[in-house]
Amino acid sequence: MLTMKIHSLSLIISVICLILLQWLPSGTNTCHALSIREATIWDLQTAFKQNQLTSRQLVQFYLNEIQRLNPILKGVIEVNPDALYLANKADLERKAKAAGSYSGLHGIPVLLKDNIATKDKLNTTAGSFALLGSVVPQDSGVVMKLRKAGAIILGKASLSEWSAFRSPTAPAGWSARGGQGKNPYVLSATPCGSSGGSAISVASNMVAVSLGTETDGSIICPSSFNSVVGIKPTIGLTSRAGVIPITPRQDTIGPICRTVSDAAYVLDAIVGFDYNDAEATGKASNYIPSGGYVQFLKADGLKGKRLGIVRDPFFKFSEKLVAQAFQNHLQTFRSNGAVVVDYLEIANISTILTSTLSGETTAALAEFRISLNAYLKELVASPVRSLAEVIAFNKKFSDLEMIKEFGQDIFLAAEPTNGIGDAENKAIWNLEELTRNGFEKLMVQNKLDALVTVGFNASPVYAIGGFPAISVPAVYDSKGVPTGICFGGLKGTEPKLIEIAYGFEQATKIRKPPTFIP
C-alpha cells in the first residue's frame, strides 16, 4: 500500500513538473540568427562556417537542456565530463582549418545508448548497477568511427535495462541506473525501448544526434513513439564490437535523429569494416554505396518505387483519425509517383510474430549467454564476469535494482542453456525458412522496393532475417501520441529506403516538437 501511494505521488509530481516545463525558461535557444532547437546537422555546420555558432556553445546549450528536462524525461543516464573540452578542441580544429572540420559530424555532439562502449570517463552499463565501474578495453567500433569523424561524445542515453532482455515485466524505458524514461509528447504514453533514451533525448532537443541498438524493434519502436527518425541497418553494416550483446545474429547499431537527412549523415559516419567484427562487417561492406548515403536524399525519392502493403496484421488501427492518416499516406505515395501494391500476405506471419513459435526465443537465449559471457570476460575490470554473476548480483542487491518488482526471468531462462545444440540449430533453421518463404518471397515475387507498415509491429520480420528498416514520423493520435511509418527492405537496400523515407518526409512534413502533454 505504501509503495502504491509513493508511486501515485511521484506521478502527480511528474505531471505538475511537466506542466511547468512549458513555462520555465530554457537555455539560450539562439546564437546570432540561428535557432539551435530543432536545428539539423546541415544547419549546425552552416552556422559553424558562418561563425554564428561554436561547438562549445552548442554543447553548453544541450547541457542546459539536459539539466532542465532530464530530471523529468530521464533520457540521459550520464553526461561526459569532458564534453566541453572536446567542444573546445573541435573549435580549435575548425579555426585551424583542419581537414574535414567543416563537414559531416565534426563538432556535432552525439549521445550513445548506454550499451555502446567508450574508453573514457563514461560508464557502459546497459542501465544496470552490476556493470557500474566496469572498464572496457577500448572504444566500440562505431565510437571509433564517430571520433574519427570529429563527433563529440556528449554522454550516454538511458535504455530499457539490458536492452529489454532482463525481464518481460520491466516497463519499456526503465533501468535501475536511469529510472523510468518518459515520452516527451505524452507523459503517460510509453517511450518504448530498448533505445528509449536515445529517442527521448533527440525528440526533446537534449541532443540532435544519438545512436541506438536493435535486436528486435529497439530502434524502430522508440522512434515511432517519440516521433523521430530511426534507421535499423542491415546486420553487419555497422560494427557490433564493444556493444553489450544480445545475439550477434540479430544485433545492429543505427542512428536516431529528427530528420532523415541527419540519420543519413550519421549512417555514413558509422558504417564500414571493423577488424574486431570482421566477418559481419566484411561481408556487409559490399553493400555500402560509393559516395555514401547522403546522395540518396532525393525529394522525388518515391517516384517509381514499388511499395508493398500487408494489411493483415500491419494496417489495423484503434482510432479513425490514425486510420485516415495512413489512408492519406497511401495516396501521398501514389501522387508522388510510387506504385502501391496493396493487400499482400506474408506466409506464416503469425508464427514469425510469435517469438516462442518461430524459434527466435530459443535461439536468442542461448546466443545471449554465450555472447554476454564473452563480452564480460574481455572487460579490463568488472564487478561481474558472467551471466551467472549478474544474476547473483541482482539477487544480492534486490532492493537497489528493484528486482522484487520486475524480476529477471529472461536471465534465469538463459543461464541453463549450454551453447548451440540441436534445439538451437533447429530454431535457427526455422527462422531462416520463415524468412525465405515469407518476407524474401514477398519482396522478390512482387518486385517490391519496400514493405510499408504502421508503427513497429513488423520488427520481427526484419529482425530474424537481418534486414534494414527506417521509421519516419507519420501521425499523432487524438491524445497527441505519435506513431511512425516503417519502410523495410532486403539486405543492403538502405539507399532505396533512404530515398523512400526522405521522399515521404519531404512530401508530408509530419514531425512537430514535443508538447509535454501531462
From TrEMBL:
Stored SUPFAM superfamilies: Amidase signature (AS) enzymes
Pfam (any one): Amidase
InterPro entries in the cross-refs: Amidase_dom, AS_sf
Signal peptide extent: 1-33
Keyword tags: Signal
Domain named Amidase: residues: 58-391
Keyword Signal: yes
Superkingdom as given in the UniProt entry: Eukaryota
Full protein name: Amidase
Organism, as annotated: Olea europaea subsp. europaea
